[in-house]
Amino acid sequence: MNSTEDPITQIERLDRDLFTWIESQSSPMDRTAFLALQRATAACFGRYSYLEIGSYLGGTIVPHLLDPRCEAVFSIDPRPDVVPDDREGGTTFSYAGITAQTMLDGLRKIAPASVGKIRCFDSDAAQVDVAALHPRPRLALIDGEHTVQAVLADFDFCLRAITPDGAILFHDANIIYPALEKAVARLRAERRPFVELVFDGTVFALCFSPELVQQDPHLRSVRDHGRRLRQVALKERIRRFTPAPVLRLWKRLRGPDAAA
Ligand SMILES: C[S@@+](CC[C@H](N)C(=O)[O-])C[C@H]1O[C@@H](n2cnc3c(N)ncnc32)[C@H](O)[C@@H]1O
Questions:
Q1: Taking a C-beta distance cutoff of 8 angstroms, is the pair 53, 121 a contact?
Q2: Is the Cβ atom of 60 under 6 angstroms away from ligand 1?
Q3: What is the mean pLDDT of residues 147-170?
Q4: Which residues does residue 76 pair with via DSSP β-bridges, in sequence order?
Q5: How far apart are CA 239 and CA 255, in angstroms?
Q6: What does the domain layout of the chain look like in residue ranges?
Q7: Is 63 in the pocket of ligand 1 (CB under 6 A)?
Q8: DSSP alpha helix (H) spans, the chain
Q9: C-beta of residue 11 within 8 angstroms of C-beta of residue 216
Q10: Residue 113 C-alpha to ligand 1 middle, in angstroms?
Q11: Which of 64, 93, 216, 243 lies 20 to 30 A from 4 at CA?
């Protein structure tokens, strides 16, 4: 249900109705994670700008579009017809026919006065000059091509693009976990401090400001009680290498209420 409530109030209580305006390829748990990072960023820094790599119809842009504290949105998406993906079986995805204009037309219907703060780049992130992203983003979401190579290239771009105290979110951690392991290893090798958050669902975040996490109750609880990346990776590796009949039997034994 769409709401006429003040968007800041909705963000403060992590109201997932903010995602009902436009289709987003994210689960309810992922939406809570996105909103918690948005709430924390606004609380920590006041005004902020948001960078998104992989936007599709703009569903994950909507909460930032509606948030008056967000002064700019940068959407990077080369809009290829077919996108390679690291899911089993050499999967590809088709987003044919969806352009940046399709997305902007949809978003304009929701917030005509705010759509001007969105700037679209129809290319890979590596081809974008980070100096063009002004004001510098505090928050970035990587949700473009789900292959190790592309995610690492997007991560490298985001590291250069965001402010040193910003945060980088990744969607579909259950698919791109080999890239996430490499990203974390890179930060450790560079001795760059960070807080990693593994949310329920498939969102993974690297936060470069401990205060950002500390001052938000949801982020604090994920930091203190959430899963670890190695647990996600282990579970996915077991799932990938276990024969399908054994997996089916395991799921039956655990019952319908067991966590996915
Ligand atoms: C999973 S969808 C994004 C969903 C969106 N974040 C949401 O939940 O509303 C993936 C998007 O990534 C885009 N994409 C494909 N290859 C890309 C690349 N190399 N860089 C950035 N985006 C890419 C696709 O065009 C598509 O729009």
A1: no
A2: yes
A3: 98
A4: 53, 121
A5: 17
A6: 7-254
A7: no
A8: 7-12, 28-45, 62-66, 100-110, 148-161, 173-189, 210-214, 217-225, 229-241, 244-254
A9: no
A10: 25
A11: 216
